[in-house]
Amino acid sequence: MKAVHFIDSCSVIFGNTVSSLSTCHSSQDIARSGRFWALLFFILAIVEFSANFLMSFCFGRVSESVIERIRIASYSTLLAQDVEWHHSDGITPATLLSYITTDTNAIAGLTGTIVGTGMSIIISMVAGVILSHIVAWRIAVVLIGCIPILLGAGIMKFRSLATFHRKHAEAYANATGLAVEAVDTIRTIAAYSLEEDAVTTYHEALQAPYSEILRSVLRSNVWFATAYSASSLVYALAYWWGSKNVADGYYSQTRFFIVLPAMLFSAQRCGQLLSMAPDFSKSRISAARILDLLDLRTPYKPPSRQSRQSTGDDLEKDTSDLQDASFPCGAEVRIQDVHFSYPVRPDDSIPRGLDLHIIPGQFCALVGPSGAGKSTIIAMIEKFYAPTSGVVSIDGRDISKLSGTEFRDSISLVQQDNILFEGSIRFNLSLGARPGQIVTDEQLEEACRLADIHETIQSLPEGYDTCIGPNGGHLSEGQKQRLSIARALLRKPRLLLLDESTSALDAQSERSIQDTLDKLRAGITVIAIAHRLYTVERADQIFVIEEGQCTARGTHQQLMRTSETYRTNALRQMLDA
């Protein structure tokens, strides 16, 4: 409505102002009319300012609220996907980050003040056309024929820009991924003096789509120029046809100068709308990407802590049964004829036909050469990946048929790469607690004593409230590893998974951790990927994994007699010691 009143009022005031300045009137009448119409323009300016301020505030507030919801929904969707999806071909941290940064910012063009401005322009154009037909229809009928030209040029420009921005975004996503990778691995790049190579690779990533983007720019600029020149064409036609109608006596000078700004303001505002095509184009592409992302949500609603429900005809109990008293001595893990291949290597199956049975309360070790599939076994037990065929079960339940991920509440994982978050030691430790658990200082200290890091924490200036920096950068690798182990023990898990979790520890610290695991053995099942002989020889059961299959199993003494691979590796470590 603000736009309608502004177009009507401005056109009427302008037409009467021009007419009143005619030399046919006295100087006193011209001065008096000038002051009157100037006052009306001043009042109109105040109304326009107030209306624009109110519109911008309302649309801006709605925009921020919508964008916040989109960011939360996008972030939740990204975290809801399984690890297998995150490791799929074409999925990189840079492209995922662009969903909640670049794309959501671009969508603001469809929800904020730009929408308000677009609505104002459309209403102004309609109001101008209606007013022109009422005042001087003969002139308006001819001039309105220019509007399809304006709109046609704008549509073609919009389509060209949409193609350009889509290709541009894809090109920059690849280049951004390279930049993020270089920043994350800056120590390696500096150590090998790869700075120039990194810059060259980044430059090549930007240059690859250069020619195609250049053609898109050329096509879009043709329509861009056409859209903007159309306004001048409307001016030329308006003055020629308007002056002819005034000369023929159809309309007065006042009516002509009312129709002229009404039509030309409509044309100019239409051009202004088309100038927003880049914003709308970016918003459309980003909205499509966001909608595709939101469509990836899991088809089921994760069950709540109060009411968990399982899926599958063969399930008789809820996933909470994995934590009940019927399995007091740790979890039972069974892997039956499992085959698996990573999404990026679909033809390379590791494991292949794997069979393992780990009884509750056992300390089991997985040994074998790198690339044999040991870490993949841990990942499948955590349900990070689903086997291509076969069954992975915990306490007799096929975890691929369990709804949600609540079964992980009784599992702790310590990875080889110790992932810590920026914040205090207390904050990082508390992340290992079970959902809903309130962690006390006594529980924190108990876990840290078991991991042999309590004394180290106490020696820090702020103790457990000491900030450790991004990814625990203020701690040594050994301290980070012990902190990760303490975080895992805080959960008091029934199943503890250790993926080479003691590789950064010295021999004394490793023995301390091993002694802790021996004490906890009565109520916990431990599956450890290990290479050091000291850790392996104390295991209840050792599985030798080669090329995705279990080639031997038994205790340390048994494998020294029956497995050539194991015996060779053990003798090599003895000689090195």
TrEMBL record:
<dbReference type="InterPro" id="IPR039421">
    <property type="entry name" value="Type_1_exporter"/>
</dbReference>
<feature type="transmembrane region" description="Helical">
    <location>
        <begin position="222"/>
        <end position="242"/>
    </location>
</feature>
<feature type="region of interest" description="Disordered">
    <location>
        <begin position="299"/>
        <end position="320"/>
    </location>
</feature>
<feature type="domain" description="ABC transmembrane type-1">
    <location>
        <begin position="11"/>
        <end position="282"/>
    </location>
</feature>
<dbReference type="InterPro" id="IPR027417">
    <property type="entry name" value="P-loop_NTPase"/>
</dbReference>
<dbReference type="InterPro" id="IPR003439">
    <property type="entry name" value="ABC_transporter-like_ATP-bd"/>
</dbReference>
<keyword id="KW-0547">Nucleotide-binding</keyword>
<comment type="similarity">
    <text>Belongs to the ABC transporter superfamily. ABCB family. Multidrug resistance exporter (TC 3.A.1.201) subfamily.</text>
</comment>
<dbReference type="Pfam" id="PF00005">
    <property type="entry name" value="ABC_tran"/>
</dbReference>
<dbReference type="InterPro" id="IPR011527">
    <property type="entry name" value="ABC1_TM_dom"/>
</dbReference>
<dbReference type="InterPro" id="IPR036640">
    <property type="entry name" value="ABC1_TM_sf"/>
</dbReference>
<dbReference type="GO" id="GO:0140359">
    <property type="term" value="F:ABC-type transporter activity"/>
</dbReference>
<dbReference type="Pfam" id="PF00664">
    <property type="entry name" value="ABC_membrane"/>
</dbReference>
<protein>
    <submittedName>
        <fullName>ABC multidrug transporter SidT</fullName>
    </submittedName>
</protein>
<keyword id="KW-1133">Transmembrane helix</keyword>
<keyword id="KW-0067">ATP-binding</keyword>
<feature type="transmembrane region" description="Helical">
    <location>
        <begin position="36"/>
        <end position="59"/>
    </location>
</feature>
<keyword id="KW-0812">Transmembrane</keyword>
<dbReference type="GO" id="GO:0016020">
    <property type="term" value="C:membrane"/>
</dbReference>
<dbReference type="GO" id="GO:0016887">
    <property type="term" value="F:ATP hydrolysis activity"/>
</dbReference>
<dbReference type="InterPro" id="IPR003593">
    <property type="entry name" value="AAA+_ATPase"/>
</dbReference>
<dbReference type="GO" id="GO:0005524">
    <property type="term" value="F:ATP binding"/>
</dbReference>
<feature type="domain" description="ABC transporter">
    <location>
        <begin position="333"/>
        <end position="572"/>
    </location>
</feature>
<keyword id="KW-0472">Membrane</keyword>
<feature type="transmembrane region" description="Helical">
    <location>
        <begin position="106"/>
        <end position="131"/>
    </location>
</feature>
<feature type="transmembrane region" description="Helical">
    <location>
        <begin position="137"/>
        <end position="158"/>
    </location>
</feature>
